[in-house]
Amino acid sequence: MKKNLPKLILMLLFTLSFTLLALFSRASAADDTTQPAIKEHFPKHASTDVSAGTIVTVRFSEPMDVKTINTLTFTLSGAGLVSGTVEYDPETYIATFTPLADLTKNTRHSTTITYDVADLAGNNLRSDFTWNFTTGAFSVEDGTSGESVCFIATAAYEGSRGTGLWEVLLGYLTGG
To answer: What are the tens digits of pLDDT across the range 75-122?
Structure first.
């Protein structure tokens, strides 16, 4: 029996370590009661002269349940409800609403992320999140307004100083 004691102790420790790992894994998911939040969105609230061809994005504070992010929970309206597609990137926590056509020019648009959006533990947003922006008169396609328009690329980043969205000026186009 003394010869087998070290093997028995090793087997017990091995079994105990897997049992504890399983318990802590379940406890961490079950204990997650933190509601997700919206960290950033584009276009920014109350922005004006937004391109009619814009794509709307929102970045959440944590990984979200992709099944809860869709055209019923991420909506855009202007002169009426805007038809579009919704995608979610679990790597960046960014959801994107892409309109099927250009937005109506010179129109106030409202974007809503509903309370029904949830994180991986099933925690919903605290409440609906709504913001507004207004499209401008100029469209890159028609170039008729005589105004200058700047092109801005937006990209998500994650690094040693945190995460966020970069907006980079790419250039100007003057309509004529």
So the answer is: 999 999 999 999 999 999 999 999 999 999 999 999 999 999 999 999
13-51 tens-digit pLDDT: 555 454 544 555 544 556 899 999 999 999 999 999 999
Retrieve residue 56's tokens: 């709307």
Residue pair 73/116 in contact (Cβ under 8 Å)? The answer is yes
- Residue 108: φ, ψ to 5°: -80, 125
Cβ atoms of 46 and 132 within 8 Å: the answer is yes
- Chain-centroid distance of CA 99 in Å reads 16
DSSP assignment letter at 44: P
Rg of the chain over CA atoms, in angstroms? 24
pLDDT tens figures, 125-175: 999 999 999 999 865 555 545 454 555 555 566 666 666 655 554 444 444
Q: Edge-to-edge strand order for the sheet containing 38-42?
A: 38-42, 56-60, 94-99, 84-89
User: Residue 64, Cα to own-chain centre: how many angstroms?
Assistant: 9
Q: Indicate whether this model's pTM tops 0.70.
A: no
Widest pairwise Cα distance in the chain: 94
Which of 22, 87, 79, 33 shows the shortest CA–CA distance to 52?
A: 79
